[in-house]
Amino acid sequence: MAITGVHKIEEIFKKSASLRLDKDKIKEVNDLISQKLYDLLIVAEENAGYNARDVIWLSDVPLTKAMKESMRKFKELEEELELQPILDHLATLPPLKYELEVELEKKLPEIAGTLIYILAMILKEISQDRKVSAEDLEKAKTIYNLTI
């Protein structure tokens, strides 16, 4: 199960970084974005617990200043992800201990889109070509995993 469709990832990569992805790399990108979104929610769940709440608030999600700036730039692309595929995907993962507040749930498509945008921008910096190579994607994944 994917958080968004192939076309949406291709479009975000094209609009934000002028990069092209082969279809075989899209699944890898989708898997990485899905994992990072879930990772952010795990940290948010911990933050909610530290604050003695049984609901995860948007403010619990560890969004850095750089991520918030990337969210602003992602919004400028005027690309939107659908909420339901994200919720469907999250339902396939180990359940979170706490529920998500409505505001956070509504923000999930923007957060996921921002994660795609950030990966595209990392690839833009390291790629020598408009077409993303397997080697470039591996380097980007390493950087992405170290920072998000």
UniProtKB/TrEMBL annotation:
Sample GO molecular function, one term: protein heterodimerization activity
**What SUPFAM superfamilies would the database entry show?**
Histone-fold
Task: Provide the taxonomic classification.
Answer: Bacteria, Pseudomonadati, Aquificota, Aquificia, Aquificales
State the name under which the record lists this protein: Uncharacterized protein DUF1931
Pfam families the UniProt entry points to: DUF1931
The record's listing under InterPro entries reads: DUF1931, Histone-fold
Question: Whose protein is this, by species?
Answer: Hydrogenothermus marinus
Q: Which Gene3D superfamilies match?
A: Histone, subunit A
- Source species, domain of life: Bacteria
